[in-house]
Structures are given as structure tokens and as C-alpha cells.
Specification:
The chain is an alpha+beta fold. Helix content is about 15%, strand content about 35%. Strand 4 and strand 5 form a beta hairpin. It is globular. About 30% of the residues are buried.
Amino acid sequence: MIFSCEYGRRSEDATMSGRRRSEDATTSKVDTTTSKVDATMSVVRAALGVVLVWFLGFGIGGCITDYEATGVHDEKNILVVEGVITEGETVIALSRSLNLTDASTVFNYINDAIVYVECDDGTQILAERTGTNNGQYTIRTGMLNLDCKYRLRLAIEEDSEDCITVEGQDTPPCPKKTFEYVSDYTYPIATPEIDSIFWSKRGLGEPVLIHVATHDPQSRVLYYRWSYKEEWEIHSDVAARDFFYPYFCWNQAKNPELLLGSSEKTVFGQLTDILVEVSPFSRKLEVLYRITVDQNVISKRAFDYYENIKKNIQQSSSIFAPVPSELRGNISCLTEPGRPVIGYVDVSLTTQKQIFIKRADGAFENSLRGWDCDGIPEDTLLFLYDGIPPSYVPYEWRTNEIDCLVLDYILNQCIDCTLFGTTEKIDDWP
């Protein structure tokens, strides 16, 4: 005969409580996860002040040419343009630079601009807003005509430079004026295919290195830009028994850095570079991991431009480096020539390649999570903590050695994969 031993009276309440906690965790964690990439980029960008997050190439390999900056000084609130015009879909990001002494962690995005790509034959393609206030604009460029020159065109309402407001005083707002900006007309640059994406590992406990290999069939000296997106599947440490908790989850992240490489000093234009390092203990590699790499050939001028910004950061011994005054890129203001603007918009065809890494491939190494995933009886938690800690959730009912019905609890992170991802399966995931 099984006695409830007081637990039976709480069984229905505990069951409902577990379900409510699971539902709440699923809803809140999905929202948190889907915004993770944008939040990370926002914080990094703010920390870098006037330096663009896409310009950061700390992981850059390959052959780099020297290019020294002069005339370094600090400027605030100037237009920053990020992106590359390519076939299919072009994404342009607009923002304003921060002062080096500005302690704000809120990046100053521009969300009300008119943005379009235009061809020198008169064709114009208007951008679509992404629907979020992240300063990003999507332009459906389709196939690019290799015999046509393209450029970016912007129209933005800004304060006039001769308008002065004094903080703390009741002064009228500055009148707005529409400023038009354009990048230089450029022919699309053809990009060779990526030869391979592969990974290597030096030994146990060593990071998993993911490489890209490419070459130009004509053995030309080319300058490359890479970006990548990571996607991975997640399983909970423990499968739920008497209560429902998600077991299968997925997550993804886009690389916030602009990675550069040059075949200038390579043999026959062949180039192999390390794109990313992944910890062998990372959840990314535990079940199934995919990395998709985009490759663009960029101009020598664009390469020098991005490299110069990176060097300026490194030579200043601080990430809070002012922008060199000469680094205006290839964007100019039509309304007011000489008005400062930061950015370089190139036109380049994109090639893409991806690989999967399975658990069975040996990249992943088991490691202690740092927490225990054994069930703990409810009365033990009540004795230890004078209540059920919020980090524990109902796990299963069982009978103990004296035939009492016992409710075991378990740490939430052991049983609910939505703490590390979302239950929404990635498109085209196997």
C-alpha cells in the first residue's frame, strides 16, 4: 500500500506549478535568445565608441600590408555607414559615432533614413526596414549587372551644424535639414568560390579551429572579406519524465566582426585562414553544429581602409581609439561637401560554403557542467533552503523505501533547454 505522506496533497499543485514554470521559462527564454545577437552587437559597438564593430578584425590572418594613419582626432555624432552591396540581398546599417568620453551603452542607430542602391543606368532599388530599431535596412538587389556601376544613396534628416543647444538651458530644438549621401560608383567585383571549410584540433582540451581555404583560378592578388553564421542543436541534460519541459532546442549567432585576408604574399593566390575558435566543451559542438561562411572579394582601397582602423585600435593600446581624420572611406555628402561621414561601401559578388560538425566527429569533449543534475526530494530542499529555490523545478514522482510518494526536484538548466536556445527549429535543419 502506498501512503501519500503529505506529498499526495501537494501533487496537483506541484504539477500545475511545474507546468506554469516551464511555460513561463519557454516564453521568456525564447524572447531572450532571439534578441541575443542584436544585444551583443549593441554592447560591443557602444564600447568601441566611434569604431565600427564590423571593422574589428582581431582574428585576421593572411598577409597584411602596412598602412599608417595620420591626423588622429576625436569626433562625435557623425554618420557611420556599414555594409556591402551584393547580389540577392544587401543589408546596410546606419548609426552615429559616440564620443570617446561618452559612457553611454546605447548605440545611436538611425532608423528613419531613406536608403537605396542605384545603378549608373538610372535603376534605383529602395530599401526595406527590418522592423526593429537596429538601424538596418534591407535592399533586394537581385542579380547584379557586371557591366553596371552601383552605389549607395542615403537621405537623412539631421541637425544643422550652425545650430547650438546648451545642456540644462531651455533652448529651442535645432531645425532639421535633409542631407544626401552617396558612395562612389563601383563595378561589381567577382568573387571566386570557397575551396573548403574545415576544422582542426591540436589535442585534448585545445580549441576547435575552423578554417577557410580559397584561391583565385587566375592567380591574381585578391583581398577578401569573410563573415559567418553559426547554428547548433541543443539537448537538455536530462529528459523530462512526469512534467513537460522542452528537450530539443536550437540556437544561432552571426559573427559581429569583419574578418579580412590577403593573398598578396601567398603562392599562386592560395589562401587559408582561421575564421573562428570554438571551445571543445561548448554546447555548440555537443549535438550538431553548422557554420555558413560568406566570402567577398573587396578592393585594395577598402582593405586598407578596414586595416587602418584595426591598426589604429591596436596602436593606441585601447579599444577607445579615435577615428583617423583621413578615414572617410568612399562616402560623401552631396548636400554639404566636406561633411564628415565614416564608412566604406564596396560592390562585390558573394560566394558561400558551409560545413556540419557532428558529435561523433570528435570535436566535442565531455566536461562537468558545474552543476548536479540528480533529482532532490522536496522535503530535502525545504529543509536546506526553507523553501523551494526558484532555480529548481518539479521533475518526477517516485516512491521511496517506505512506500511514500515523493516529489523530486531538479535544477532548471538540467531539464529545460530553452535556457540555452529556442524550441523553434532552424529552417532546413536536418
